[in-house]
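Retro notes
What went well: the complex prediction finally ran end to end.
Inputs used:
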Amino acid sequence: MSYPQDIQDMIDDFAFLSDWEERYMHVIDLGKALPPLSEAEKNEATKVKGCVSQVWLVSDKTGGDDPVLTFRGDSDAHIVKGLVAVALQIFSNRKASKIHELDATEILKELDLQEHLSPQRSNGLKAMIGRIKAEAAAA
Amino acid sequence: MSFNIDNIRAQFPILSREINGKPLAYLDNAASAQKPQAVIDAITGQMSTSFANVHRGLHTMANETTEAYEGARAKVASFLGAPKPENIVFTKGASEALNLAAYGLAGEIEAGDEIIITQMEHHSNIVPWHFLRERYGAVIKFIPVTEQGELDLAAYKSMLGPKTKIVSIVHMSNVLGTVNPVKEMGEWAHAAGAIFIVDGTQAAVHMPVNVVDIDADLYCMTGHKLYGPTGIGALYGKTDILERMQPFQGGGEMIEDVFEDRVTYNDPPHKFEAGTPPILQAIGLGAAIDWYTGFDPAEVHQHEMAVYYHALDGLRAINSFRLIGDAQEKGSVLAFNLKGAHAHDVAQILDKYGIAVRAGQHCTQPLMTKLGIHSTARASFGIYNTLDEADRLIEGVKKATTFLS
């Protein structure tokens, strides 16, 4: 399957990383580069339930029938914040129909981060993606 | 049995496991401990050779299984220094033991009666008392914890009074590792006319416990942290206290006679054991106690603390390391944070190196609030942990700091 160019770029970046340590470093760096949410934006409404670490997700939409959804997110834990960054890279700033179509499981496999998607994992990546998909479906 | 660490480790099949291509270093014993072959064999052996429901059976295996089950009760009694097996109620764990205590004593609580606990309690020794607050108007008072992680005993003394009905204290904190002076605290509680309850979930695994010496009215313990199976724990109670307590759950075995208009109850401990009990788990716990008491408790304690201090010395050299809980008297629980890092990050990275630690609030939200922290990472050492594993923890935490700085 072919991905949008920015997702393909991310996959290519990850392909250069030889082991889990480099992958974790990269994920953490992506998280560090993410602009933090303001304290006011970190509230009960934006908090993603089902995460052991705290995760917040803020969304905006523009356009009509098939609006473009933009997400911003934050977490108090480094690795999770990095996973937030990965999820935003995949889904943010895309049309609702595209968000619906994108298969996060496939992409995370390409990044060798699929271990984080198991429902038994408590980091909440699955909950985060569920929230993004639900917002796209409702848009 | 003399204390030989290689010999001990060889008795735990799971310790030869690899995690993420690294040998497992299991440092999550305060959450649950691994099981020696003797415990595994006791459970499978019972199922393979003699099993039936306990009590009132008239056939051979029912009698054999009852003997094994009641024999396990006697082992728990002896382990805790209880006068007789009838002082031991089997529960599914320490949480159920504490809930049973609260429920059993609820009938004696009136609005305005005071229950004293501490800020370092596990939620299991907080929430059951909140039930009494919600339902009967009890007032809960929390003994403050100092910066070092010790109880403010002067504050405790000033809290006691004619309204104090219950004092329920953790023997050893699951986060701070602090060992509280329960004997002294119990004397004060009794002087005030209160019932004195001790949560021995962690303590019973790390130090010799004698409930008579402590003079606890009720003492709780769990099996799975004592190298036994899950689903089994115990509530020790003084005979008169158990007789005073109202039954918790109704069903088979806990009754004497049932009529359409009334019911009479069996004597303790059976009064509190409705339904088919966790027979195999109790027998497994008995085997765990047999196994564990084969060692000199002083030697076990010394070994665990040697691993603890070895780890602590190495970790203290890391700039961002902060120990949570530095009490004078403490057991082998090492809670910590790294400045600028989340405890979950630390635990996830350590897992990649095969090191299992816990991270989070450890079911102690009031303690976290008091300490002004959100969570901690926690390494907790058991009988089978080694200095080498402590070194791996130190190296793993150093690695984590390079990731997270």
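What we learned: The mean pLDDT of chain B is 96.
What to try next: split runs per interface for comparison.
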